[in-house]
């Protein structure tokens, strides 16, 4: 899969390395009000309706991807699993979410199996919905994804998507995000500030 690490923001709100100290530490820098996150209506792996309100009360780690993704998504979710193993052994301090950008193939039934994959966080919530519902969630989190045909067949496709893990606080307020390059230690360090 050609995984694009692309972030499309409607506003020029993200500045990388705008502070010297942050640039040195490798921390992702957010300037101003990022306005990441917002309302959505989706279904979970048990085919139950969920909204953003169902995950408030605990910090959240959220990843958008698709279950057919051969490497990028599993790597990110395994990283999330490692963070859980280090900081949240009982799995009850943080809500872990995987939101599909491929609702056509990611049904709640298929996500039910997927979220239980080896190394993924225990209790990982797998969310999907109609294309419109997923588009709304993607828009709220400024997520990029693009279906790419692999052949002339309509069913043979992959999905290029942003490789970003979002960290939200217990009120659903955006705290930070992590890319593929961020290590488990770096993610853990940021998360520990809220749950340590
Ligand atoms: Ni992926």
Task: Give your account of this protein's structure.
This protein has five helices and nine strands; from the N terminus they run H-E-E-E-H-E-H-E-H-E-E-E-E-H. The chain has helices at residues 20-25, 72-87, 108-114, 131-140, 184-195, and strands at 41-43, 49-51, 60-65, 95-100, 125-127, 145-149, 157-161, 164-168, 174-179. With 196 residues, the protein is of the alpha/beta class. Residues 1-26 have low confidence and may be disordered. Helix 3 (108-114) links the parallel strand 4 and strand 5 (125-127). The strands form three sheets. The protein has a five-stranded mixed β-sheet, with helices on both faces. The chain has a two-stranded antiparallel sheet with strand order 1-2. The chain has a two-stranded antiparallel ribbon with strand order 6-7. Bound molecules: nickel (II) ion. Nickel (II) ion is lined by residues 65-66, 69, 72-73, 161.
Helix and strand topology:
Elements: H1 20-25, E1 41-43, E2 49-51, E3 60-65, H2 72-87, E4 95-100, H3 108-114, E5 125-127, H4 131-140, E6 145-149, E7 157-161, E8 164-168, E9 174-179, H5 184-195
Parallel strand pairs: 3-4, 4-5
Antiparallel strand pairs: 1-2, 3-8, 6-7, 8-9
Helix pairs in contact: 2-5
The structure holds nickel (II) ion.
**Unreliable segments of 5+ consecutive residues:** 1-26
Quickly give the structural class: alpha/beta
The number of E-state strands comes to 9
| First-to-last CA distance | 36 Å
Please state the CA-atom Rg, rounded to the nearest Å.
Answer: 16 Å
Measured by DSSP, the beta-strand proportion falls in 15-25%
* Cofactors, ions, other ligands: nickel (II) ion
**How do the strands of the widest beta sheet line up side by side?**
5-4-3-8-9
Largest sheet: 5 strands, mixed
Q: What coarse outline follows from CA principal-axis ratios?
A: globular
Order of helices and strands: HEEEHEHEHEEEEH
- How many DSSP H or I helices? 5
Q: Would you tell me the overall average pLDDT?
A: 86
Helix % is 25-40%
